[in-house]
Each structure stands twice: as structure tokens, then as C-alpha cells.
């Protein structure tokens, strides 16, 4: 079984699937297709599926021109004639129908792992994807979980679902014995390391950590990914791979928290945190630069460490660094709103009734993603104090989030001119900061760009 599986991947004859076509799944599906595999992307969202089959990318890191190279469609005279039907020889196509898994030699799970309302891990998407795979699991199939999750998810949650699955029922071969990992099928965990907006390190050339449930699982998953990625980093278990990912992002969250605390300390000391950090960063070894900001945004850094905290709580261990970093990072919007209040006060104005323009609402520069963006917290807090808040963001024409619905101001210069205070929340490269500095009567700069 293992030899046959490996042969399919090394010969690129395999037909593989990617479940979840977001900022992780779509780039992965494209590089698997570029490696020569036949790839079927599976997503519940019909509009995503239709867009992909029409060669229209909705992920900034995957230009449509690159997507079209692996999507060949035939404009048929049937039906409306306009909707492209993916050419069966097309390397990549998308569907909402999971039954395609019955003919797939491998499947990667790239679904979201958010926190639920009480701040605990929500692995419902992983469970749902695993249950679909179990329905179509068949001999020799390779299953790789990519979604960031707590150590133990692959072995304690995904594996039992696959073992309980109607083994082969989707393929018509009823087989009542429970399938054995490493013998009947292969299961591994391999974390994504996508940094949205980055072009130097991509899904293809970023080293890929992989941990198999058994040695044979590691071998099969490595054959699957080895044909599409330059460097594989095998580890001893899925748990080691799961924790590696959480450690990477916890490392960032804690260091960003330290940089933010330096900002708070420098306030008391009357020093410039950025000057100190830039000076420290001249140390050619033993230092890594992190910078203060408006808080912690994105769907990874604020969330992934909470997965580790949660798991450790079940083992009656308190993850103190994670809690403290989260406390400091979460409180930064309040710190910056206090800065706005102090600055307006200096100008003899109250926050209440003042016009405040927030520049940049995405969670970091040069992306349009607003998930967990601290700019939203800053807007919320300002409006709670009675400020009249507008925003501008070249990547976000409008948004509806956190009970707020706003349009990007049409005329940036005019909005700057009428604002009592401008808050720099996201330092998009598209802004002319010299111009903004000259136009604005008062600026609170959370990103140190002016
Ligand atoms: N931030 C700071 N100070 C810093 C660095 C970041 O305030 O010194 C803020 C950013 O503005 C942003 C948040 O923290 O709001 C997260 O920043 P990030 O650079 O970690 O960006 P993400 O979440 O898009 O991407 C990260 C990846 N980033 C890098 O490696 C640089 C990486 O940790 C993961 O591959 C990815 O999340 C993920 O998907 O886990």
C-alpha cells in the first residue's frame, strides 16, 4: 500500500484534494497543481468554487493570471455557453461536492480554527471535514491536517473519526473492519506557514514541518508534499508538528507584547521606544526586532496562542507568558485612544464632538484583511467617547464588523483637512506620509511612520 501510494506521488499521477480554499488552501492547491498533480479544491462556498473554475482569484497572494495557468476551461456551446466547464485535463478545478474524495489519493484539510464565544478552540470545521473524508476514505489514501490547532487534535479527534468512518462505503467496497493508520491509510499533521502579502517566502519554498501518526504515515505524506515543496522538516509525531506551529506564533505574540510593553515603559520614562528598538536591532546577534503597534490583529497571532493556553489548562498548567502578552496586546487600543484624548486636550478640545480620521483599518499593512484588526477597537473606543470617527483605507472600500458599518472616505485630503485628529492605525505603503504629515493638524501615529 505504501509503495503504491509513494509511486503515485513521485510520478505525479496522483489526484489530490484540498478542503478549504482560503488564504492557505488556494495557494496550496495552486502549487500542488503546478507540481503536476490533478487537484480538486473543495469548499462549501459556491462563489469561491465558481470563481476558481473561472480562473478568478480572490486571494491577493494568488494572481488570477497564475490561477488561469492551471485552470483550462472549455467554452462549450451547451447551456448559456458562457460558464466555463473545467477541462477534464485541467490540473485544478473546484467543487462543493465531497464525493470527489472517493477518487482522490490524498487530501489536505485547510479549514479555519477560530475561537468560540467563550474564547475556547472551535474545531468544528476540522471535525466536519474529517467526517466527510471518513465517508470516502479508501485504501492507501493520505490525509494531511494543516489547520492550526492544539497538540493532540490529529490523533485524538481526526484519527478516531477516520477509523469509525464507513470504511470504503463511498467507493462501494463495504469493509467492516476499522481501517488502520499506516497500513490502510496515512494520516499526518503539517502546519501552514503562509504570511499573507509576502512574496519572498511562499507555500512552495517555505520549509514544511510534517509529523505522521506512524512512520509509514510520515513517509506517505512526505512523498505527497515532497513533489510540490522544496524542503520538508519531518518531526516525530503530529503533536510535535502541532506544537511547533503554536510555538512559532506564540513566540511572535509574546515578543510583540514585550515591544508594546516597552512602549508603555518609554511613556513613563519620556523616551522613544522606536529609537531604543532601532538601536537594539543593530546588535548583529541575539536580538530579533519587534515593534510596538495599535494592538494585535490577524486570524493567527491573536488566536493561535489561545489554543495552546486552552490545551495546557486541561493539563492544569497556566501559560503565564501567553496570558500576559495577550493582556498587554489587547489593551493597546485603549492606550492609543488615551493618547488621542490627551492630544485633543492639549489642543483645548474634548474627544466628544471631535472629528477623528483613522488611516488604515486592515490588521497589517498592504493587506485588505480586517480580522481582529485593532483599528476596529480604536474606532469603537473613540465612538464610545463621543468622537465623530471616519476612516480611510486604500484596501478596504467599506466594512461591516463589530456592529459598525462604515464607508471609506472618498476624499482623503479633504478628510485630513477637516479632522481634529488623524490616527495612523495601519501603515499601508500606498500612503504619502509626508503629504499626510503636512496636511494634518494633529496626528497620533501608532505605527511610527511619520
Ligand atoms: N505586529 C506588531 N509588531 C510586530 C509585528 C507584528 O504589532 O513587530 C502586529 C501586526 O500589525 C499584526 C499582528 O501583529 O496586526 C500580526 O502580525 P504578523 O506579522 O504576525 O502577521 P500575520 O498574522 O499575517 O502572519 C503571521 C505570520 N507572520 C510572520 O511570520 C511575519 C506567521 O506568523 C504565520 O505564518 C501566519 O501568521 C499564520 O498564518 O500563522
Which H/E pattern describes the elements? HEHEHHEEEEHEHEEHEHHHHEHEEEHEHE
How confident is the prediction overall: mean pLDDT?
Answer: 93
The computed structural class is alpha/beta
CATH architecture field of the largest domain = 3-Layer(aba) Sandwich
DSSP, total strands: 16
Extract low-pLDDT stretches: 74-82
Helical content class:
25-40%
Features:
Rossmann fold, eight-stranded mixed beta sheet, binds ligand SAJ, four-stranded parallel beta sheet, alpha/beta, 2 domains, 39% helix, 450 residues
Can you put this structure into words, describing what you see?
Strand 1, helix 2 and strand 2 (38-42) form a beta-alpha-beta unit. With 450 residues, this protein is α/β, with parallel strands linked by helices. The chain has helices spanning 2-10, 25-34, 46-53, 64-70, 124-136, 153-164, 215-226, 238-269, 273-280, 304-314, 320-346, 374-384, 412-418, 433-439, and strands at 15-19, 38-42, 73-74, 85-86, 92-95, 106-109, 142-145, 186-189, 208-212, 232-235, 355-359, 388-392, 398-401, 404-407, 421-424, 443-445. The strands form four sheets. An eight-stranded mixed sheet has the order 5-2-1-6-7-8-9-10, with helices on both faces. It has a four-stranded parallel sheet with strand order 12-11-15-16, sandwiched between helices. The longest helix is centred in the middle third of the chain and has 32 residues, at 238-269. The chain has 14 helices and 16 strands. Residues 74-82 have low confidence and may be disordered. Helix 5 runs parallel beside helix 6 (153-164) and helix 8 (238-269) packs parallel to helix 11 (320-346). It folds into two domains: 2-235, Rossmann fold (3-Layer(aba) Sandwich); 250-445, Rossmann fold. The structure holds ligand SAJ. Residues 193-196, 249, 252, 256, 259, 290-291, 293, 296-298, 300-301, 363-364 line the site of ligand SAJ.
Amino acid at each position: 500500500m505504501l509503495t503504491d501510494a509513494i509511486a503515485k506521488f513521485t510520478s505525479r499521477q496522483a489526484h489530490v484534494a484540498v478542503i478549504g480554499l482560503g488564504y492557505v488552501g488556494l495557494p496550496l492547491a495552486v502549487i500542488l497543481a503546478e507540481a503536476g498533480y490533478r487537484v480538486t479544491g473543495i469548499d462549501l462556498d459556491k462563489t469561491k468554487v465558481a470563481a476558481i473554475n473561472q480562473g478568478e482569484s480572490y486571494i491577493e497572494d494568488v494572481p488570477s493570471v497564475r490561477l488561469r495557468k492551471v485552470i483550462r476551461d472549455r467554452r462549450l456551446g451547451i447551456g448559456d455557453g458562457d460558464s466555463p466547464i473545467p477541462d477534464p485535463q485541467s490540473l485544478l478545478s473546484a467543487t462543493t461536492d465531497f464525493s470527489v474524495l472517493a477518487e482522490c489519493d490524498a487530501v489536505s484539510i485547510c479549514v479555519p480554527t477560530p475561537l468560540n464565544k467563550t474564547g475556547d478552540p472551535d474545531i468544528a470545521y476540522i471535525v466536519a471535514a474529517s467526517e466527510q473524508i471518513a465517508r470516502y476514505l479508501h485504501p492507501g489514501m493520505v490525509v494531511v491536517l494543516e489547520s492550526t490547532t492544539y497538540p493532540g487534535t490529529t490523533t485524538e479527534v481526526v484519527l478516531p473519526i477516520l477509523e469509525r468512518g464507513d470504511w470504503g462505503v463511498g467507493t462501494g467496497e463495504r469493509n467492516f473492519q476499522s481501517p488502520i493508520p499506516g497500513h490502510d491509510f496515512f494520516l499526518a499533521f503539517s502546519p501552514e506557514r503562509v504570511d499573507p502579502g509576502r512574496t519572498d517566502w511562499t507555500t512552495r519554498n517555505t520549509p514544511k514541518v510534517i509529523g505522521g501518526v506512524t512512520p509509514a504515515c510520515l513517509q506517505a505524506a512526505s512523498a505527497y508534499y515532497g513533489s510540490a515543496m522544496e524542503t520538508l522538516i519531518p518531526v516525530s509525531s503530529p503533536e510535535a508538528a502541532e506544537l511547533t506551529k503554536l510555538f512559532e506564533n506564540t513566540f511572535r505574540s509574546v515578543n510583540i507584547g514585550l515591544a508594546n510593553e516597552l512602549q508603555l515603559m518609554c511613556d513613563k520614562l519620556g523616551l522613544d521606544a522606536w529609537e531604543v528598538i532601532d538601536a537594539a536591532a543593530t546588535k548583529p546577534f541575539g536580538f530579533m526586532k519587534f515593534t510596538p503597534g495599535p494592538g494585535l490583529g490577524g486570524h493567527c497571532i491573536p488566536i493561535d496562542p489561545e489554543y495552546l493556553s486552552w490545551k495546557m489548562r486541561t493539563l492544569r498548567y497556566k501559560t503565564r507568558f501567553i496570558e500576559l502578552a495577550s493582556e498587554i496586546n489587547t489593551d493597546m487600543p485603549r492606550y492609543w485612544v488615551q493618547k488621542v484624548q490627551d492630544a485633543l486636550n492639549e489642543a483645548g478640545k474634548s474627544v466628544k464632538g471631535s472629528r477623528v480620521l483613522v488611516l488604515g483599518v486592515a490588521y497589517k499593512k498592504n493587506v485588505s484583511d480586517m480580522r481582529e484588526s485593532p483599528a476596529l477597537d480604536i474606532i469603537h473606543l473613540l465612538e464610545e467617547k463621543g468622537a465623530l470617527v471616519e476612516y480611510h483605507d486604500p484596501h478596504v472600500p467599506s466594512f461591516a464588523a463589530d456592529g459598525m458599518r462604515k464607508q471609506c472616505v472618498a476624499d482623503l485630503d479633504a478628510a485630513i483637512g477637516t479632522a481634529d485628529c488623524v490616527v495612523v492605525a495601519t501603515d499601508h505603503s500606498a500612503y504619502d506620509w509626508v503629504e499626510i504629515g503636512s496636511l494634518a493638524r494633529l496626528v497620533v501615529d501608532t505605527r511610527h511612520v511619520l
